[in-house]
Design goal:
Elements: H1 2-7, H2 18-74, H3 79-84, E1 93-98, E2 101-104, H4 116-123, E3 128-134, E4 137-145, E5 152-158, H5 160-195, H6 197-210, H7 227-274, H8 281-311, E6 319-322, H9 323-335, E7 340-342, E8 350-353, H10 355-372, E9 376-384, E10 387-394, H11 425-435, E11 439-444, E12 450-457
Parallel strand pairs: 7-9
Antiparallel strand pairs: 1-2, 1-5, 3-4, 4-5, 6-8, 9-10, 10-12, 11-12
Helix pairs in contact: 2-5, 7-8, 8-11, 9-10, 10-11
Length: about 450
């Protein structure tokens, strides 16, 4: 199993994806099939070409043997003259053994150049052929017995054209196999993309649900294999949405119910504070603690109502806004001093936003910097590609890399935090920014401390 997994990994150690594996499988299958067909084609064609060449050489050598045998019988000329008088017709040369004596038409074709097996078979009275190498070239040697015992005629024919044809054929078949492999891999890539499209839709829907978009659904279609999966996913998400909405409505109702007695307690506390100078000194410290807890309770109720309204599906109220001016007003007010710098690239940018929610997100980030980051050192608005980037810097210890994604969870608080807050501010900020199609992330500030970056698209998706 380990060996198999090792083969499915890239040189960098990353495991190959399913589409890559399917493409490779199609490519290897195409290579195997094309190689098999190429071998069969090469074998059939080469056998045919060699057979045709051999048949032609046998027919020509048999004709020349007949002419030579006739001349020997009639004794019109010597064997040497008879051999030299034979038409070549593409033959390299001929030789014959008559009466135990050898005769040759070319110094290239001598008894020493012929295989002993071929000579033995022809002298024994059998017609034989054999391919030989002469001076680096391929030739076909033909041996045919003559009328007299132990006499034989031999002729050598070049096979350069046949060899070149077979070489060209091998290159063509190799190129075809390579092209077929590439086409097979490409076809596998396309086929896997089509086959995995429902999986991509499932992944996108699951990511949308994980991001809080609980109304995301899969198209059911009429595929008998995929429809049950889509129905099961949609039913599960529907039940999850129902529970979340019910919990959100419950939290909203509880929040509203708490606001009335909370308002009464706050008003009563204010009345007592107005008469604080009349209280005994021993009651003033418990009064301050009670006031602090009531303020913390008020902030908790406000945050719970804010995040519950988002979970309950409250829609955005969009209106055009000069983003730089909106950020400056919210950030400077939250910090209690000028902290905002607007880059020239973003000075005249106008976005369609929900002003209340975007202001709340910026205020929460600035309050977080003021409360937990040692103070906000600056808020910068600038353009970044096709997005507006809003950077909130502080001078605190920063956020460890392993906690940068966790700080946006509900009730998340940094280790060692002793200041007030219930851990909902960053969670609310992320939800408000996500509702605008943007993102918010934590990173390290170049000058030390933490930097929270809001990225808003110029056009909402």
């Amino acid at each position: 199993m380990r060996r198999r997994e090792a083969r499915l990994r890239t040189p960098s150690g990353r495991r190959l994806g399913l589409r890559d594996r399917v493409s490779i499988a199609f490519g290897l299958l195409a290579l195997a099939l094309s190689a098999l067909l190429s071998l069969i084609a090469w074998g059939v064609v080469s056998q045919y070409l060699v057979g045709e060449r051999q048949s032609a050489a046998l027919a020509q050598a048999d004709l020349h043997r007949s002419l030579l045998a006739t001349g020997i019988v009639q004794r019109k000329e010597s064997v040497a003259l008879l051999l030299n008088g034979l038409p070549t017709n593409g033959a390299t040369g001929a030789t014959a053994v008559v009466g135990g004596r050898w005769y040759a038409t070319s110094p290239r074709v001598q008894p020493a150049t012929l295989p002993n097996e071929l000579i033995a078979e022809a002298i024994a009275g059998e017609t034989a052929t054999q391919r030989i190498r002469l001076e680096g070239g391929l030739y076909l040697a033909v041996g045919i017995p003559l009328a007299q015992s132990d006499d034989a005629f031999f002729e050598v024919f070049p096979m350069d054209e046949t060899e070149e044809t077979l070489r060209t054929l091998s290159w063509v078949l190799s190129g075809t196999a390579a092209a077929t492999t590439v086409l097979g891999a490409a076809f596998g890539r396309v086929a896997s993309g089509i086959s995995l499209r429902p999986l991509n839709e499932l992944n996108a829907a699951a990511a949308a649900v994980a991001g809080g978009q609980l109304d995301a659904r899969l198209p059911t279609g009429d595929d008998p294999d995929l429809t049950p999966l889509a129905l099961s996913f949609n039913r599960t998400v529907g039940e999850l949405q129902h529970r979340v909405m019910a919990d959100a409505r419950f939290a909203v109702d509880v929040g509203h119910e708490l606001r009335t007695p909370l308002t009464t307690m706050l008003n009563s506390m204010q009345v007592i504070k107005n008469r604080e100078d009349r209280l005994p000194p021993e009651l003033r410290e418990p009064l301050e603690l009670l006031e602090s807890d009531l303020e913390r309770f008020r902030a908790l109720v406000v945050d719970l109502l804010e995040i519950s309204r988002h979970d309950a599906g409250e829609q955005l109220v969009l209106a055009p806004a000069a983003i730089g001016r909106l950020v400056r007003l919210a950030a400077d007010t939250a910090a209690g001093r000028p902290v905002t710098t607007i880059d020239e690239s973003a000075r005249h940018v106008t976005l369609s936003v929900d002003k209340r929610r975007l202001e709340r997100a910026i205020v929460n980030l600035v309050n977080n910097a003021e409360t937990h980051g040692g103070g906000c050192t600056g808020v910068t608005v600038r353009m970044e590609d096709h997005h507006v980037a809003i950077e909130v810097d502080d001078k605190g210890p920063g956020v460890p890399a392993e906690r940068r994604a966790l700080v946006f969870d509900r009730f998340a608080r940094g280790s060692g935090t002793t200041s007030g807050g219930v851990g909902l501010g960053l969670a609310i900020a992320r939800r408000h920014i996500a509702a605008h199609g943007g993102t918010v992330r934590a990173e390290e500030c170049p000058g030390g401390g933490a930097r929270f970056v809001i990225s808003l698209p110029l056009a909402r998706p």
